[in-house]
Amino acid sequence: MEQLKTIGRELAMGSQGGGWTGQSKEFLDLVKSIGEARSKAEEDRIILREIESLRRRIAEPDVPRRRMKEYIIRLVYAEMLGHDASFGYIHAVKMTHDDSLSLKRTGYLAVTLFLSDDHDLIILIVNTIQKDLRSDNYLIVCAALVAACKLINEETIPAVLPQVVDLLAHPKEAVRKKAVMALHRFYQRSPASVSHLISNFRKRLCDNDPGVMGATLCPLFDLITADVNSYKDLVISFVSILKQVTERRLPKVYDYHQMPAPFIQIKLLKILALLGSGDKQASGHIYNVLGDLFRKCESSSNIGNAVLYECICCVSSIHPNAKLLDAAAESTSKFLKSDSHNLKYMGIDALGRLIKINPDIAEEHQLAVIDCLEDPDDTLKRKTFELLYKMTKSTNVEVIVDRMIDYMISINDNHYKTEIASRCVELAEQFAPSNQWFIQTMNKVFAHAGDLVNVRVAHNLMRLIAEGFGEDDEGADSQLRSSAVNSYLRILGEPKLPSLFLQVICWVLGEYGISDGKYSASYIIGKLCDVTEAHLCNDTVKAYAISAIMKICAFEIAAGRKVEMLPECQSLIDELSASHSTDLQQRAYELQASLCLDSQTVEIVMPLDASCEDIEVDRNLSFLNSFVQQSIEKGARPYIPESERSSMFSVSNYKSHYQHEASSHTLRFEAYELPKPAPTPATPQISVSTRITDLVPVPEMTYYTENNQASKLPPVSDASSADHGIKLHLDGVQKKWGRPTYSSSSSTSSSSEKKINGVTHLDGVSLQSRGTSYDSKGQQSEVSAEKQKLAASLFGASAGKTEKKPTSTQRAPKANTATAERPGVTGAVSPEISKQKAASSPSPDLLDLGEPITATTTTIDPFEQLEGLIGPTPGTSTLDNSVTTSEQKAPDLMALYTDTPPSSSSSIGSASGDIHSADKNLQMAKNVPAIKKGPNPQDSLQKDATARHVGVTPTGNNPNLFRDLLG
Amino acid sequence: MIRAVIVMNTQGKPRLLKFYEFQPPEKQQELTRSVFAVLSGRPDNVSNFVEADAIFGPGTRLVYKHLATLYFVFVFDSCENELAMLDLIQVLVETLDRCFKNVCELDIVFNFNKMHTILDEIIFGGQVLETSSERVLKAVEEISRLEKSASSVSFVPKSVSGRFGR
């Protein structure tokens, strides 16, 4: 320690610098002036001046080596602050050739920071590294290994590989350790080049130095992740190592905060989790040591919790064991109950892992989860949303998606906004309980994150509205459409809407705006004209709008009604026919053309509600045959396919020139040809049509597809493109929403209800008692009541939904029978319940979990409620109610957790958490350093003075890091 | 794997940047700035943990610790346990503290090459190499002892040889 100089002494030593850091006065001045810089611009000026002077001085001949070292360090410093120091790279490379350890190390440090592994200068270093790896001085070997790790790329691995392998048997453990890591790095870069050396890792696992063994776990973890089965034989070794570690057989130096080698334990647990996953036999070996760990780990220290958390991850990954799962659940609940945000975070993550195995665990922690949802900590909130996302069911989707949307509206981070928006859409598509709800949800998502959601989502929405449920329930479909139209007409009044949303709105209004006869054609057309006026610079929206107008006009004509052309619509057409965009022009002209057609033609061209119909493409264009024949007879030249054409006539290329321009926007590199007599009309015409068919298979042309689909004027383009359009819309739509999920869920919940009536009684009681204890603890009964309600809706609210379903979906014979049966089951108690409801509905309490069922009964028979108000004795009513609560509650939970959606399994795995409360840190930090040397006020005072002297005192008065930790 | 170690002060000035996958200097600055923007927006009594997939790509997270005027930040992917990373920061800081005796921002500014030496002993190529603060310290002291003895022994000869070299 004696060579560690304080700044004061360094200053006193002046330009020579002190110790092995060796900075000069100049460097101190530089740091000082940067510290004093008032603005970024000033700082930049100082650094640029510094770089200029370094550039000059570094190039001088015969710079003393010590001075050069300092220049290099200053260059590293300048580059760290974001300025280019590339002129000095070559000097850093040169410095690695130096014999002196200190200079060589500086050189290596600089090149590892400066150079990427494909930099041109690397080739100059490889030789040095090779030489240094054979050095007698182990520190030089270490430095070379560090550099090799960073700089050696796939091509240069063979150059150093033999030396590195030799070093695996080096007498110094520091070298063995780094050689293992370097080999691991080579494996990451290019697995093939070191595949024959993988057995070395197994050998090093038995190294008698724990540091080397610990380092070997890193490559083994990667190897096992890649290929579990070849390492099953190591399970027993890993378990025995873990056992030895927990029994404190490792040297004392590996203890960290009274835990024996926790970092090694964690790595081992990670490896065991991989090996035991889905393997009953391997898991059997692991159970024992895991049980020990759960018993031994103290949850008072941060690192203890880290190990505990890793144990939970391991338990949830290996073949399930009831006892261990209990222990894991207990630890999880400790995490969740903790005051530390870090621990709560870990708890949420652990809960996400455990519910995959046993969904009931979440129920116990519903209030803690809701607390986390309302926490000011963003990280925790997001983690909780992730958990909710995993446990969404048709029963709680409304609450969860509403919460997500509220959060989405509240944040500004576009990256996360996009993610959460796509999750909302996914959940809504999968679990939507009703059409109205689905449309409303999508409207909210589009309105608030419209420009962030994927275009595909918009196409999905349009497709869903067009296709409906895919069942033969036409009434429901048209209901859905008219509710969409209603909501869109309302939304159009809002001042600012994302472009993508407007496209959807225009399309739906065009397709279904007048289909239910509620709105007149001129009303809808007027609205669409308003849209184009409000979004003058958005051509895509305009295109959608004009196509929508055309559709409405066509529908009117086809229905035999006269289309009155509104003045604003006429002016819109005029404006667009003169537009710079050829696409808009075409649409405008098509609209004008379609207005002049007779009703039969229009009906064929633009059939009503046919966006989903399959259209067959006649790729041979056989209907043109007679026309072609005629032309040829008249003396036209026959059509030559493009493939033959390109090879045979380079001269007459120009004939197809204008087609080129229209269809493919590629540059022509060859010279224009000499003019020739005008081509006969047949050739271009046919090739035009083939070109259109050529367009068909091209994906990602959604915009044009939409165009073509809407503008079904020329039969050729119509046929081909509409087919394309349908293909495109079907892409990537995984699941139909609405009916199927809904109906199945309602039937499961109602049937399971009946089955488990007796069993679930206990459940409800325990729930209640826990709720009360929470209440008494929390003291704010009002808040907690609110939370209770939320919890009920999140974790078990299928009853609430059954009440809603019949009213909202308008086609609920099934659901109605399901609910209608209930009075038969719970008939005796229903009056009491309804009384309960009447009494407690304004401020829901713990029993409020029963509210949903009362709502159900209310819809079925309002008279019973009245009876209930007059009838029963209070004593029995509460009792009865608790019974029904449990009856009602249990099936909800079952429905909620029994079948985890397949999508959730993938997302659960990745996350883990972080628990380390600030105050705990404080205590722990106190423990170790304080014992070692204790606070040294004199030292800190001196430093303080130095800091002031140098002038880089950062914000606070006392820049000492540990002042606040050591007290 | 650990992707990066960033030490910066509470005004966002980088004090040590170490990326275990090469990043060009401009990118390093950009990443540092965005990390600082996230950290400075976080209140004191929340978790030490931020999902960083907007900055460092999908699946990455960062753990930070705010001590006096410095932020210590570790960026890593899903292979690491974040609680353990937090303790690794603790190991680093404890080692620094023992090394510099009541470490302060200034020590780190002036001795950032020594910081690098310490860090290289703890993290090697993005993997955790050594977690015992004592052993790290021993290794670092050994390096500085040898460097010093080598330079003091060669002090006179070096200047002589330098003269001969001319």
Automatic annotation (TrEMBL), chain A:
Keyword Nuclease annotated: no
Keywords: Golgi apparatus, Membrane, Protein transport, Transport
Cellular localization per UniProt: Endomembrane system
Cellular component GO terms, alphabetical: AP-4 adaptor complex; endomembrane system
Presence of keyword Nucleus: no
InterPro entries, A to Z: Adaptor_Complx_Large_Subunit, AP4_complex_esu, ARM-like, ARM-type_fold, Clathrin/coatomer_adapt-like_N
Region feature (Disordered): 736-886, 948-967
Record-level GO BP terms: intracellular protein transport; vesicle-mediated transport
Primary localization: membrane
Family under the similarity heading: Belongs to the adaptor complexes large subunit family.
UniProt function note: Subunit of novel type of clathrin- or non-clathrin-associated protein coat involved in targeting proteins from the trans-Golgi network (TGN) to the endosomal-lysosomal system.
SUBUNIT field: Adaptor protein complex 4 (AP-4) is a heterotetramer composed of two large adaptins, a medium adaptin and a small adaptin.
Name of the protein in its database record: AP-4 complex subunit epsilon
Species of provenance: Ensete ventricosum (Abyssinian banana)
From TrEMBL, chain B:
Domain of life (superkingdom): Eukaryota
Any single GO BP term: intracellular protein transport
Record field: transmembrane: none
Any one cellular-component term (Gene Ontology): cytoplasmic vesicle membrane
Residue ranges constituting the AP complex mu/sigma subunit domain according to the UniProt record: 1-145
Location(s) in or outside the cell: Cytoplasmic vesicle membrane; Golgi apparatus
InterPro entries: AP_complex_ssu (IPR016635), AP_mu_sigma_su (IPR022775), APS3 (IPR027155), Clathrin_sm-chain_CS (IPR000804), Longin-like_dom_sf (IPR011012)
Name used for this protein in its record: AP complex subunit sigma
